[in-house]
């Protein structure tokens, strides 16, 4: 019983660290950026994207962003999203390394979708 309690406490602690990480790495004011024409870049796999996505978003899996050339316009504003928020952080950092100046982390696509809907 003691082992189960310790395991549950460790898992709860890890979850809190994960949620804090996501919150701290999430950019603010994304709804305004979308209203101003930002492109929502969904970096999940094609099969994940087919299960649900933000209408109008562009799907380019994170693995494709590692290529030498990326099929994106560097002059546009991009908001990266994925399933839970970790790949979107990586994608935003990767694009910034490649010279894209206006890239923001949108976190989980479903969370951003709710934000955009005003919930």
TrEMBL record:
Superkingdom of origin organism: Bacteria
Domain Rhodanese: 34-118
Xref: Pfam families: Rhodanese (PF00581)
PANTHER family: FAD-DEPENDENT OXIDOREDUCTASE (PTHR43031), PYRIDINE NUCLEOTIDE-DISULPHIDE OXIDOREDUCTASE (PTHR43031:SF1)
Listed name of the protein: Phage shock protein E
Organism, scientific name: Taibaiella chishuiensis
